[in-house]
Specification:
Elements: H1 3-21, E1 24-32, E2 35-42, H2 50-65, E3 71-74
Parallel strand pairs: 2-3
Antiparallel strand pairs: 1-2
Helix pairs in contact: 1-2
Length: about 80
């Protein structure tokens, strides 16, 4: 595992408690081509604010800490499946 991936996983681990408090969770899937792939689980998976949480929360936090990251994608979202 490279340093960037380890840092991304560490950031996700810091975000997780906030999602768990609301009945959700996040799982790191992979980091490839400067895109972080995650699974949003639990209450997050069916929440109407999932895109806001992902793009304005999780993605911005990760990009601020790891500037090489260009995007965070939820692989549970049909539009973003790989």
């Amino acid at each position: 595992m490279d340093q960037e991936t380890a840092k991304i996983i560490n950031i996700i681990d810091k975000i997780r408690p906030f999602l768990v408090d609301d009945g959700g969770d996040i799982e790191f899937v992979k980091y490839e081509d400067n895109i972080v792939y995650v699974k949003l689980l639990g209450a997050c998976a069916g929440c109407s604010l999932i895109d806001v949480t992902l793009k304005e929360g999780i993605e911005q936090f990760i990009i601020n800490e790891v500037p090489t990251v260009k995007e965070v994608r939820n692989i549970n979202s049909e539009a973003n499946q790989y």
